[in-house]
Write a structure and sequence with these properties.
alpha+beta, four-stranded mixed β-sheet, about 325 residues, three-stranded mixed β-sheet, 10 strands, 2 domains
Length: about 325
């Protein structure tokens, strides 16, 4: 990595800190003009009773909290009806965080020689497990302590005050489409470790236009359902307060129900998948076609394959 790249990365991180501090200062200076509401029961790991101080602490926390697991973020759902000064400061902070994230992703791909981010995300490098080369770079720059889930995340923004804001726990799936060559690359990597080439032989029997996908159930995540005055809805990430220009009337607020109750409701509905909270692609097979890499095949193609090659059916 060149010195200019390192300088740019450090410079962008410094911008994150500067513009985040500017948001915190603007919030402090606008007490009485900016309206802040936080769901104080949503995060039990922080013992800060004042809403403004709690928000400022979470925005300026770039590392892991002592009681926090690596895959998680600290919760701070709520809303900010902002003055023009606060709103502009938030936009600049969000832009700084997005630029830093973009540069970090670019740097990671360059150092690791990644051409296909889908394959990288699938194979062995979740965000909480850094490759040695990346960890070494961050240590040299004294940035190894950063928890990037905190550094990257932005305050959700609406450019007009909504009529209603509601929070809900989303229980969804992530579905990523893969090409034949991408699946082959994943299987080749797996075979290098296991010395087992059966899945590659199985893949060779499939046509190159086969439809593959990775399907993964996501952990419950908080979402914001915003209703504007024209009746249009918009969904935003809900772990941080949504920011919008202050209007004469505040929106109606509906806090999220307890996650445990939401999960119970989901379990009760599992027998009726049409009513379930999960988004499910009915064209994908019910079980992974290649379990070792968690890759599914289109249901019709899977049926045709096992009719033609019954020896590959394991159940």
């Amino acid at each position: 990595m060149s010195l200019s790249d390192r300088y740019e990365l450090q410079h962008l991180y410094d911008h994150v800190r500067v513009y985040t501090e500017a948001v915190c200062d603007a919030l402090s200076a606008s007490i009485g003009d900016t309206f802040i509401w936080l769901d104080m029961q949503a995060e039990q790991r922080i013992e800060i009773a004042d809403p403004l101080e709690r928000l400022q602490f979470i925005l300026q926390l770039y590392t892991l909290h002592p009681s926090q697991k690596p895959k998680t973020v600290l919760m701070c759902p709520g809303l900010i009806a902002a003055t023009p000064t606060v709103f502009e400061a938030v936009l600049k902070m969000n832009e700084a965080r997005q630029k830093f994230q973009s540069k970090m992703v670019e740097t990671r791909k360059k150092i690791l020689g990644i051409q296909d981010s889908t394959l990288d995300n699938q194979f062995g490098n979740p965000t909480h497990e850094r490759p040695k080369a990346i960890d070494n770079l961050l240590r040299e720059m004294n940035l190894h302590h950063l928890h990037f889930k905190h550094v990257y995340r932005c305050l959700p923004v609406l450019h007009h005050a909504p009529q209603q804001i509601a929070w809900t726990w989303a229980l969804t799936q992530s579905i990523k489409k893969l090409s034949y060559d991408q699946v082959k690359t994943l299987l080749e990597k797996k075979a290098q470790k296991t010395k087992n080439t059966e899945d590659l032989e199985k893949l060779a029997l499939l046509p190159r236009d086969s439809s593959f996908s990775i399907r993964q159930e996501l952990a419950p995540h908080l979402r914001i359902n915003c209703l504007d005055h024209q009746g249009k809805r918009k969904m935003l990430k809900g772990t941080l307060p949504v920011v919008f220009p202050k209007a004469a009337i505040l929106p109606q607020i509906r806090p999220a129900k307890d996650l445990a109750q939401r999960m119970i409701k989901h379990v009760e509905n599992q027998e009726d998948q049409q009513k379930s909270a999960f988004r499910k692609d009915r064209t994908i097979g019910d079980t992974p076609f290649f379990p070792a890499i968690r890759v599914y095949l289109h249901k019709d193609q899977e049926r045709e394959f096992f009719l033609k090659y019954p020896q590959w059916k394991t159940d």
